[in-house]
Amino acid sequence: MTETPAAETTFKRVLLKISGEALMGDQGYGLHPPTVERIAEEVRSVHEMGVEICMVIGGGNIFRGLQGSAQGMERTTADYMGMLATVMNALAMQSALEAKGVYTRVISAITMNEVAEPYIRRRAVRHLEKKRVCIFAAGTGNPYFTTDTAATLRANEMNCEAIFKGTKVDGVYDKDPVKHDDAVRYDTVSYDDVLQKRLGVMDASAIALARDNNLPIIVFSLDEPGGFKGILAGKGAYTRVHG
């Protein structure tokens, strides 16, 4: 299979961050295999452009640590359960990608050698150089940190040129576009404005980490077919969060 040179794209190495809820389709819980397959196809199409891809997937479709904590569960235990949920999602995505001929590695911040590699930065970088998709699972391996923060951490460690945050809307709005018809989408917005206006792109620690390392965040709609590939080719609607 002949790959299109990465030089024809805007970025050469990126991290795609999606929520666990993105994998459950119209269901209220769990994994929806056709939806997983559709997202895998989006990733495959970008991979064929020659772009090196990392992924971080949340676990909210299976278990969310904060909700467990709110219901009386000890916070650290609830967070570790949430991390295990992200490993399940990562394995599902790996299966879908490899069914499409894309070599993929699941790399876990919690050691579980039977199903995933441990996180070793140099090894992960080598996988990317060999054009393998790396799915980083189990967050940072620490409680009290979200997968948004894990995504920003890994993107910096892997020297990614941007984080692509796939959502249900085509960018960042001044208010919820689902509830407000007059919501206005930003083409660009600063890290400080995201924090001060609480625009909900990512949690505050993730935005601060991106700001401190001048790592742009591209917010786009994962529901738009071909959207991920289009933006990498310089097309489509999105919001760029930067300094």
Structure description:
The chain has a nine-stranded mixed sheet, sandwiched between helices. It has a two-stranded antiparallel sheet with strand order 7-8. The protein has helices at residues 33-47, 65-70, 75-99, 121-129, 147-157, 191-196, 204-212, 227-232; strands at 13-18, 52-57, 104-108, 117-118, 133-137, 162-167, 172-173, 185-186, 188-190, 217-221, 239-242. Strand 1, helix 1 and strand 2 (52-57) form a beta-alpha-beta unit. It is built from eight helices and eleven strands. It has a single domain, classed as Carbamate kinase, CATH 3.40.1160. Helix 1 (33-47) packs across helix 3 and helix 5 packs parallel to helix 7. With 243 residues, the chain is α/β, with parallel strands linked by helices. The longest helix has 25 residues, at 75-99.
Write the layout of secondary structure elements.
Layout: E1 13-18, H1 33-47, E2 52-57, H2 65-70, H3 75-99, E3 104-108, E4 117-118, H4 121-129, E5 133-137, H5 147-157, E6 162-167, E7 172-173, E8 185-186, E9 188-190, H6 191-196, H7 204-212, E10 217-221, H8 227-232, E11 239-242
Kindly list the characteristics that best describe this protein.
globular; two-stranded antiparallel ribbon; disordered N terminus; Carbamate kinase; 19% strand; 243 residues
Molecular shape: globular
CATH topology category name: Carbamate kinase
Number of domains: 1
What's the total number of strands?
11
Beta percentage is 15-25%
Question: Largest beta sheet: what is the strand line-up?
Answer: 4-3-5-2-1-6-10-11-9
Instruction: Work out the helicity level.
Output: 25-40%
CATH class call: Alpha Beta
**Any idea what the CATH architecture is?**
3-Layer(aba) Sandwich
Question: Uncertain regions: pLDDT < 50 for 5+ in a row?
Answer: 1-7
Outline the biggest β-sheet. 9 strands, mixed
Structural class computed from helices and strand pairing: alpha/beta
How many alpha or pi helices? Answer: 8
State the order of secondary-structure elements, H for helix, E for strand: EHEHHEEHEHEEEEHHEHE
Report how far apart the termini are. Answer: 39 Å
Fourth CATH level, the homologous superfamily: Acetylglutamate kinase-like
Mean pLDDT: 93
User: Taking Cα atoms only, what radius of gyration do you get, to the nearest Å?
Assistant: 17 Å
